[in-house]
Structures are given as structure tokens and as C-alpha cells.
Amino acid sequence: MKKRLDDFEDRRAHLANLSDEELKQKFWDLANEIVQPMLELGKKNTSPSIERSVLLRMGFSSLEAKEIVNGVIDRGLMGKGAGHVVLKLAKEKNISTRDAGVMLVNGQCWDEVEKLFAKEGVSC
């Protein structure tokens, strides 16, 4: 077995003169640098399974969630998020998110949803 070279002192030379507070700040700066690309991916990318999961947590059944997500995909609204679609419709109609989602499952108000996201007038 080969013995590992002890190069700890060489590797830490650039950190040797930092205070505890500066080391702590450097740690958090590096941690944020590592995590930032993952956050960006999460903000810009989604999938049907993620959107169904969101709807399940909002109280919809898996069959309802699937129908809502399919409707969102069919209308090119995936980037908005299925939960956001349901929530925006509920707020616009002043009804519960459950009622809004059920309306979408039943094929109702999709035109209104498209208009809401296109920032046009509302009619259902």
C-alpha cells in the first residue's frame, strides 16, 4: 500500500492567514457557488412528474394531477408550473384551489387560464 503524501500545509497555504470569521464566510461563498447552478436548473426546468408531485401536495389525487398536468402541457404552460396554473385560476375566480383544479380536470376554464397567462381579459 502506497503512503499518501502529506501536502496539507501546501493545500491550506492560501487559507492560513484568514480569521475564523473569514474562513466561515469563504465556506458559505463556496457553498453558494456550488449550489447556484442547481437552483437555476430548478427554477428553469421542470418535468411532468415534478408537476404531478406539486399537485399531489396540493391535495389532488394522482388521476386528477395527471389530467391537470396533461392540460398544462397541451397548452404550453409547463414553464409556469401546474400548481401555479391552478392557484392563479383559483385567485382569479375567488374559489379554492381544489375547486379550480377540479374545473380544469373537467375540461373547464382552460381558455381562461390561457388568457390569464397571456395577460388578456378573462372570460369563462
Question: What does this protein look like?
Answer:
With 124 residues, the protein is mainly alpha-helical. The protein folds into two domains: 9-44; 48-118, Helicase, Ruva Protein, domain 3 (Orthogonal Bundle), CATH 1.10.8. 66% of the residues lie in helices and 0% in strands. It has helices at residues 8-11, 20-44, 48-57, 62-74, 82-93, 97-105, 110-118. It is elongated.
Brief overview, please?
With about 120 residues, this protein is mainly alpha-helical. About 65% of the residues lie in helices and about 0% in strands.
Number of helical runs? Answer: 7
What is the global morphology? elongated
CATH class of the largest domain: Mainly Alpha
Helix/strand order = HHHHHHH
Q: Residue-averaged pLDDT, rounded?
A: 90
Strand tally is 0
Low-confidence region ranges: 120-124
C-alpha-based Rg, rounded: 24 Å
Major beta-sheet overview: none
CATH topology of the largest domain: Helicase, Ruva Protein, domain 3
Whole-number total of structural domains: 2
At the fourth CATH level, what is the homologous superfamily of the largest domain? Ornithine 4,5 aminomutase S component, alpha subunit-like
Task: Return the structural class.
Answer: mainly alpha
CATH architecture of the largest domain: Orthogonal Bundle
Question: Helicity range of the residues?
Answer: 55-70%
Strand content: under 5%
Query: Distance N terminus to C terminus?
Result: 75 Å
